[in-house]
Amino acid sequence: MLATAASELAAADPDLGAVLDRLGPPPLWDREPGFPTLVRIILEQQVSLASAKAAYTKLTAAVSPLEPTSFLALDDTALKTIGFSGQKGRYCRSLASTILEGSLDLEALAAQPDGEVRRELTGVTGIGPWTADIYLLMALGRPDIWPTGDLALVAAAKDLKNLDSSPSPAEFKALGEPWRPWRSVAARLLWNHYLHPQPAAEQ
Q1: Cβ atoms < 10 Å from Cβ of 101
Q2: 162: left (phi > 0), else alpha (psi -120 to 50), else beta?
Q3: Residue 131: which residues within 8 A CB-CB, separation 6 or more?
Q4: Phi and psi for 154 in degrees, rounded to 5?
Q5: Is pLDDT above 90 for 35?
Q6: C-beta of residue 72 within 8 angstroms of C-beta of residue 96
Q7: Is 56 helix (H, G, I), strand (E, B) or coil?
């Protein structure tokens, strides 16, 4: 499906077509649905993926299996040593508690429409629209998610479309409209472009 959708987008948008021609189909970057993935996405909020990955690796080495109960057993000192800020520690504890209380059923999300998944997830302290969208896109594999709060996507769109300035959230949302119903695949193409920028001499 990914390759087919990427080809459809490339046929409709020459800029995306150039990315596909240069880099080939983008990686799926899929993740296993569940608590560990949501914790990792929370760690990725507003930091580099490398630093988030380092903290997540330390976490999974300290707690195995990574489950709500075992996470809640970690005290503030342990979380700080792993690489959690105080705020992200609170966010992940809130997530763990919400799951254990039965207020959030992560397994049930797979059968729910995109809007309902967003509503359920953003009802948890520390989970905003970006975190919910990344979970929808990477963990649940939804085909038409457009994470408007993703700074890498905004930067990639600015570069690919030769914009004078970064698009506002409203402008970025509008930019993605022509790419329905494959906005998730468009996002993957843009992420791939961001990670492998074209040398200036070749532009």
Answers
A1: 9
A2: left
A3: 38, 41, 42, 45, 121
A4: -60, -45
A5: yes
A6: yes
A7: helix
Distance CA(26)–CA(80), nearest Å, equals 35
How far apart, in whole angstroms, are the C-alpha atoms of residue 10 and residue 150? 22
Q: What is the largest CA-CA distance in the chain?
A: 56
**Tokens at 37, concatenated:** 């993935």
Q: Is the pLDDT of residue 48 over 60?
A: yes
CA–CA gap between residue 32 and residue 141 (Å, rounded):
10
> Two tokens at 35?
């608590």
* 107-152 tens-digit pLDDT: 999 999 999 999 999 999 999 999 999 999 999 999 999 999 999 9
Q: What is the DSSP letter of 179?
A: G
Q: Token match 């967003």: residue? A: 118
Q: What is the pLDDT of residue 203?
A: 53
Structure tokens at 185: 């695949």
